[in-house]
Amino acid sequence: MSSARAAPVEIHLADYRAPDFYIDRVDLVFDLVPQETRVRSTLQVRRQGAHDRPLVLDGEGLTLLSVAVDGRPLAAEEFVRDEVSLRLPIPGDTAVVQIENTLNPAANTALEGLYVSSGNFCTQCEPEGFRRITYFIDRPDVLARYTVTLIADAEPYPVLLANGNPVSAEALPGGRHMARWVDPHPKPSYLFALVAGKLHAVRDEFVTQSGKRVDLAIYVEAHNLDRCAHAMDSLKRAMRWDEEVYGREYDLDVFNIVAVDDFNMGAMENKGLNIFNSRYILARPDTATDADYAGIESVVAHEYFHNWSGNRVTCRDWFQLSLKEGFTVFRDQEFSADMGSRAVKRIADVNVLRQFQFAEDAGPQKHPVQPKSYREINNFYTSTVYNKGAEVVRMQRNLLGAEKFRAGTDLYFSRFDGQAVTIEDFFGCMSEVSGLDLQPFRRWYDVAGTPVLTVSDAVDGGRYQLTLRQSLPGQAGIEPFMLPFTVALFDANGHPVPLDGQAEHTLVLRELEQTVSWAIPDAKRPLVPSLNRGFTAPVQVDYPYTPEQLAVLSRADTDDFNRWDAFLRLMQHVLLARIRAAAEQGKPGTDTLPEDLSTAFGALLHHANDDPMFVAECITLPTESYLADQFSHDTPVVWIHQERRRLRAELAAAWASTLHLLYRNHEPQGAYHFDGRSAGQRALRRQVLSYLCALDEPAWWQLAAQQFATANNMTESFNALLALSVTGGSLFEEKMQAFEARWRQDPLVMDKWFALQAQRTDGSALARVQSLMAHPAFSFKNPNRVRALLGSFSRGNLLHFHAADGESYRWFADRIIELDAMNPQIAARMASVFNTWRRFDGGRAAAMRAVLEKLHDRPDCSPDLAEITGKALG
Ligand code: ZN
Which are the contacts of 387, defined by CB distance < 8 A and separation ≥ 6? Predict the structure, then answer.
């Protein structure tokens, strides 16, 4: 396949112009052959406005066979073609353009456009893959009605799928067959999809609120038929939820999902034909963990919800990406919250935001939720667009209240149905239904960086006073953000202190500095403010909490999110102080476990019987990479690793018997079931076992080995391995081998094993990763395998990836170069681990910088990788 691309140019939001032509109808006929697929396309085009510019179609890596306009074939000198486009004159205001081209799906390793995965044809068109299938105006504001005919050999490709509803199918001479699909809804080209292959379906049905029956199917390879039940169940619950919560009904006769093994992202919301990375569909109790079950539930829902937020109402251009992604993430977050524990879901979502989005926002790849320019749009499917985008929608919901927000989304869906619109249009609706002036709120879409809210308090004449000051790191003279900020107050015993008689207040901040005060009853000092409860705004709160205050909140805050956050701050406080001290002294600390922390830990354990999932979240230590993110220079990788371990062992030693009791009391009974209570028990046992195994006592390792041997589900068996991995040793080695022997034929399960191997800190991790590249279950062409082994090594093994000699950096960069030739999207994502180079000491920083330069300066560097490495170098 030709990988030649146009020299990347910077594309600016400010340069948006409506297209010169619209395409109202598309008729596509595919003759599917792996090495040479033929596409015949018939386009009904319509001139937009009065101009005499030619029709310019996008097309990349295609072989053009013929072009005709209104039935007349064009001679070669009548059109102009280059690497990325085809231009032809259109005589009147409308025309029928017919194009024939071929392409080679079998050679497509970039997994963008039409490709072959496990012998089946599938597509990925978002954002700009359709131009790799046929010539088209490949931008989201060109909406067309599609008819698609698929022709293929019947034996290897019995199943032929496309968007919309099936209308006909027939056998053809020579062992071939055809199927035709019509999608009645106008859609942009990025939502086009087809699938052809040897697939088997799990079927079900759904009756919509207005009584229409929809046939549901999940297509997988035959051996995976017994792993679709959870995805199907999640789909039906998502369909019902969108009717109940947003009044959104499904709009076709069929809804099809296909699971494919080779996929760059999580899943894709193609109209009526969602295509999924198989890891977000396939689950059986013995192969998938609770985290996998939760991931499937949320991704299935996410893609389904796009049917309205993304498909029926779509984006005008790619600068509006968060219009669909931020909103849809918010929708899937709320769905999952309604299906399980709301507080735990919020904790998980904020964890993702802080670990990935805050880091992105503080580094060279920082950009607003609505970027102002890009070179390669694939690089903008980011945590900022998705997760911060969701927070920005959540703030609007919180500012308006649930009822008005619903009125706003109703207005948005009805007013813009069938159109390609902007972020402005969305919050215009919110403003219209609420009468709120949201203009100041726009800054959340326009300004990069995580705002800091510096809070101070005082008690004065029976009043409690808070002063809140906004700032943006590294920027002077900023304009204020508008944000909802919920606060409450506690006394030193943890009793709530009403503010003007109310348990909590939601402030709407609009000024750079604001002071508010409330009358308070007499209360036992010191008073303890609970700030940004439920994480109402995506900001860093900077308040000089004492350990004593944090201990009070972690025991008594009535907001579970802040209770979790207080304990996290307490752990972080101790850990960071110890890491800094160790780095200064050049040797591990010897101080004893602080009393406040130990007591708070114990108090949480005593709450575990009521809410095991919540307590499991609370006692989870911050990850090494999160701790590393807290350093702006000379990140002390060795001390982060060692001090985190030391704290784990100390807490375990102080509370060993309680931990052991919890372990035994929460043993789940009977067959595996994915529900809040039993998943919570497993989550608690996972944490408990990891603490216990951090002690240098073989009895606890035996307990983990026992769990590994007797578990009837993947969650418990893999958690045992995780616990054993902390101390390494021959028992761990033995169980890893047993796991491999049992699962080596199962790639998704092996991803867990590869990831755990890559994160091991015993022995030479680099040598281990190098040799695992040759493991029969590994494939460099499969993004899931690459993420499991290489992604986990670079992001999950702080100690060894950042080894002082720079060997890991150099080896990893050479793998990125190899990846770039096959799959630039994945190469670019892997390379972003080097974004942080400035935050390391001189030797490491120089080594990381050198590999960035090496990656960037290659003549054949892809635009994807060039943009990432270029920004990292600054
Ligand atoms: Zn999405």
Answer: 329, 349, 352, 353, 356, 357
